[in-house]
Amino acid sequence: MSASPKRPGRTGMMKNSADFERATRAAKFILARTRLRPRLAIVLGSGLGGFADALSDSIAIPYARIPGFPRSTAIGHAGRLVLGRAGKLPVAAMQGRVHLYEGYSAREVAFPMRVLGRMGVRAAVLTSAAGGINTRYQQGALVVLRDHINLQGVNPLAGRNDERLGPRFPDMTHAYTPRYREFAMEEARRLGLTVHEGVYAALLGPSYETPAEIRYLRTIGADLVGMSTAAEVIAARHMGIEVLALSCVTNMAAGILDQPIDHAEVLETGERVKEQFTALLQALLPRLAADVSPRA
Known about the structure:
By secondary structure, the chain is α/β, with parallel strands linked by helices. The chain has one domain: 3-Layer(aba) Sandwich (Rossmann fold), CATH 3.40.50.1580. The protein is built from 9 helices and 9 strands.
């Protein structure tokens, strides 16, 4: 008589139900180290972490010190949570993120967003480096995401759902908050910046896409491609956190230009557009903060 098969995913489901407690413990650890109570968070992607260095009255906590927090191993990601003020506004800024291609699960990738939510964050700005598929884009272009296509093969909400975090079947019709996208386009026009709107395709990585894959992504409606963002957005919206996502086109995707893709180019382009990116963020933060400030 053959042995009974194991019940699939039982251990994972038990871990899933513990996310609330784990995130709460990490949030308490962080808040015990500052008097700031940010309701706004920023996730800074490849080459864009310098924004956090300009925050005043700041403290920086390495991810390795935060209970249960995954550690970033990607080049260009400092792996620190910085809490400080942008002007007078308290913000939490993640200098780098973790990715599925580093060996983390989708729930681990989304865990920092869980922690931010338990800290009281109600709006998040997610930034990323991306490859440009839309031929109207140029290297260095800034793009406001209006939607995504998750082709990573996983979802951070798979497994047992904890209603304390959010509903079993969260709606993703407006995953990227429409009024925040309007704020971004308005502030970009006011600053004289050319900013596009587009659809982001999230792939697993770490290899860059082939030209055939890029042709496929263009056919299904993608304007940019990257290896992050989708899991974080899904977890944020599950918790009721509003989302704005900004991508910098740090390279044109495979086959768009007749040249190879180099990660050093990604970091160099992020550095080149840093001033424009920072100016847009600084203009946006007061509007986002006002939107999530406690009402009298």
